[in-house]
Amino acid sequence: MGSIGNFAEEFWNVEVGNFGGWEIVSQRMKEASKITANYVDLLKQVAAAMDTFGRALLKSAKNSPLPDMEHGEMKASLETARVSVELWGQDTMEAAAAITAQAAQLTQHLAQAKDTRRLTEEEVKQRQQQVREAVRRVRQAQHLAQGKMRELMDAEVLKLTLITKPDTKSKDREKVTQVEERAMKATRDAEATHKTAVNSHNAALDNWCFCARTAFDNMQVMEESRVKLLRECMWNVANICSLLAVHIDQHQESIRAALLQLDVAKEISGWVAMNRTLQTPPIPLVYSPVSRPSQSTPLDTPSASARSTMTEVSERSSSRAAVNQVQCHSTRPVHCISSQLGARAKYRWRRDR
After folding, report:
1. Phi/psi at 265 (nearest 5 deg)?
2. Is the pTM higher than 0.70?
3. By CB neighbour count within 10 A (0-12 exposed, 13-18 middle, 19+ buried), where does 271 fall?
4. Of 259, 232, 240, whose CA–CA distance to 54 is shortest?
5. What is the DSSP string of 296-324?
6. Which residues contact 49 (CB under 8 A, 6 or more apart)?
7. Distance CA 27, CA 103 (A)
């Protein structure tokens, strides 16, 4: 970077009080301050967003309990995922705090630069005003000296005119001589005033040049330190984001490792073994045919045999009707009533016979 002072001197015209070089440098410092302030605002917004995201991750991890029915490696994998999300949130919040520290450092440098520029501008404006006043006094003294010089020249011309005349009185010559002496004295005073104004202008100009060079050197140092600090800040932010990405990848890698250790068939068989209700299988049933009992009741007469058969049939009909009545009461009432009525009619018909 070239010297700001050498750049500004190209725009100087100190003889007439033109200080365009300082105006250009001052405008450049204002633009640099604005650029730095915009970058600080960007860092603050990024830090706020990262902090909000990290807090959301922590809240999600804390409000996500594991299910009680999980077991084995699946439960361990879910626990690893929850812990990884929690660590991810903590790392994000720490990265946000680090970026906020970088923004605070830039803000501090920006405040110092503003104070330095403000004080420098006040001193420079004061020196500029002194130079302008000195230039104005020099011009006034110059105009006054020029006027007195013209009066002296007029007095000298009048004296020569009177001397060349033969009839000029001595009294008039003395008056012309006195006028010439007063003009010479006024001219000498005007020349002294002009010389004093020039010396004052040169002193004010030297003070301005010294102040301006000092200000330009300070601006040069401030601009170099600003650019260097801004570069270091951007480098640190890049490192912070890179480190955060590495930590996130580590957390995700731990989740991948936990999932690789998970055996689906083993998990299902383990769950079945933990939740089965009967430890030993039941004893199988063995089929055995049931023998039908024989009826050896003798029948004496055909009427008794018919009566016993009718009684047996009526008892069977009654038992079937009772069963149908119970089933119909529980399922279909209309069919139950019809079955019952049919059984009664059949019993009466047999009885009448």
Report:
1. -60, -40
2. no
3. middle
4. 240
5. -----SHHHHHHHHHHHHHHHHHHHHHHH
6. none
7. 24
Q: Is the dihedral of CA 344, 346, 348, 351 positive or negative?
A: negative
The dihedral built from the CA positions of residue 173, 175, 176 and 182, taken in this order, carries a sign that is: positive
Backbone angles phi, psi at 254, to 5 degrees: -65, -35
176 phi, psi to nearest 5 deg: -65, -40
Q: Do residues 24 and 11 touch, judged by C-beta distance below 8 A?
A: yes
Give the CA count within 13 Å in the CB-facing half-sphere of 157.
Answer: 6
What are the φ/ψ torsions at residue 12 (nearest 5 degrees)? Answer: -85, 150
What ranges do the domains of the chain cover? 4-145+199-272, 310-352
Burial zone of 207 (CB within 10 Å; 0-12 exposed, 13-18 middle, 19+ buried): middle
Q: What is the pLDDT of residues 3-19, one digit of tens each?
A: 544 544 454 454 545 66
Tens digits of per-residue pLDDT, 41-92?
Answer: 999 999 999 999 999 999 988 887 766 666 667 777 788 888 888 999 999 9
Residue appearing with tokens 């011309």: 157
Contact partners, residue 341, CB within 8 Å, separation at least 6: none
Task: Judge contact between 228 and 105, C-beta under 8 A.
Answer: no
Fold of 4-145+199-272: Substrate Binding Domain Of Dnak; Chain:A; Domain 2 (1.20.1270)
